[in-house]
């Protein structure tokens, strides 16, 4: 082993660390290979709420860094500087603006997400090695279409409440005022862009997760360290590759709060791309990349760790009942 150490890849090293760290792994097979749908959906719901709640302040920073604005007070140079300024100017509560919308939407959306993923993966050969990558990618994309249709309005409300200087006191007030001022369309104007972003994001995330999990833990035993490491790697890859689409989505979801007529008239992903390029050049498409990766690495690690842990615990409880 020593002679090959210099040639080890980071994943080889991670695999060895996982193997060394987890001597007493718990075998999934003792509980049955196929989890019931209600277990997957309940675990997904709990994982979604946990993930979004823990990482919410960094997500708020990402939103503010991606918004097109001419106001110098609303521009930030980095995650740490943004967190410091927001908490000192707006108080600690300022970092949690809009979290109620996430909690209301994330539970049902993630239940739908993971339920769809497991059903589609099972029916497209995701448990057979030759089909695994294609199957998990397709299952992830299918899960995204279903969950985003539910979650998109909650995401719009969340981002409006995250903006500097907003006057919304509750999710319901925000939803009501947006509907009166901009109509029902405002809750779905970003849906095509969201899908354009999240379908590749989810396909990359699930395929990377399943690949890394298989490499790090070939026995497929219950391994919290493996789930966290594989989830973090998957989150980093997917977040980095889809950042330009996330910037366009943010512009579409926050356009109604801008005083700039050009921004207010943006009505599609392509018009958002054109405006970002016009105002900020290609650099504009990578705004918010750092907080996006900082958000997705731990949140993805936490999401998969929670999901695998919750469903393992729930099934074990069901078996002992």
Automatic annotation (TrEMBL):
PROSITE patterns hit by this protein: SOLCAR
Designated name of the protein: Mrs3/4p
Family the entry assigns: Belongs to the mitochondrial carrier (TC 2.A.29) family.
InterPro entries, A to Z: MCP_dom_sf (IPR023395), MCP_transmembrane (IPR018108)
PANTHER family per the UniProt record, alphabetical: MITOFERRIN-1, MITOFERRIN-1-RELATED
Solcar repeat residue numbers: 35-123, 131-215, 222-313
Primary location class: mitochondrion
GO cellular component, one term: mitochondrial membrane
Keywords: Membrane, Mitochondrion, Transmembrane, Transmembrane helix, Transport
Gene3D superfamilies: Mitochondrial carrier domain
The UniProt record lists the keyword Transport: yes
Record localization: Mitochondrion membrane
Bilayer disposition of the protein: Multi-pass membrane protein
GO MF entries: ferrous iron transmembrane transporter activity
Gene that encodes the chain: MRS3
BP-aspect Gene Ontology terms: iron import into the mitochondrion
Pfam families: Mito_carr
């Amino acid at each position: 082993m020593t002679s090959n150490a210099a040639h080890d890849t980071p994943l080889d090293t991670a695999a060895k660390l996982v193997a060394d760290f987890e001597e007493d792994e718990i075998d999934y097979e003792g509980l049955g290979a196929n989890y019931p749908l209600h277990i997957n959906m309940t675990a997904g719901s709990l994982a979604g709420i946990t993930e979004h709640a823990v990482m919410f302040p960094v997500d708020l920073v990402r939103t503010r860094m991606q918004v097109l604005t001419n106001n110098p007070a609303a521009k930030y140079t980095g995650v740490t500087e943004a967190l410091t300024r927001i908490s000192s100017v707006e108080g600690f509560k300022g970092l949690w603006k809009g979290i109620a919308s996430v909690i209301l939407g994330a539970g049902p959306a993630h239940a739908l997400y993971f339920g769809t993923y497991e059903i589609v993966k099972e029916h497209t050969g995701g448990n057979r090695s030759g089909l695994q990558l294609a199957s998990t990618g397709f299952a992830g994309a299918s899960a995204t279409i279903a969950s985003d249709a539910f979650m998109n309005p909650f995401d719009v409300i969340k981002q409006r409440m995250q903006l500097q200087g907003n006057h919304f006191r509750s999710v319901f007030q925000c939803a009501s005022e947006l509907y009166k001022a901009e109509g029902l369309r405002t809750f779905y104007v970003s849906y095509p862009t969201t899908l354009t972003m999240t379908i590749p994001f989810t396909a990359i995330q699930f395929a990377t997760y399943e690949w890394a999990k298989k490499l790090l833990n070939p026995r497929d035993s219950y391994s919290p360290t493996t789930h966290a490491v594989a989830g973090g790697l998957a989150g980093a890859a997917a977040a980095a590759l889809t950042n330009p689409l996330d910037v366009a989505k943010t512009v579409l979801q926050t356009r109604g709060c801008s005083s700039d007529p050009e921004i207010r008239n943006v009505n599609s992903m392509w018009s958002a791309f054109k405006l970002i390029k016009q105002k900020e050049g290609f650099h504009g498409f990578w705004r918010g990349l750092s907080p996006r990766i900082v958000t997705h690495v731990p949140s993805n690690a936490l999401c998969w760790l929670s999901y695998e842990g919750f469903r393992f615990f729930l099934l074990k409880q069901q078996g002992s009942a």
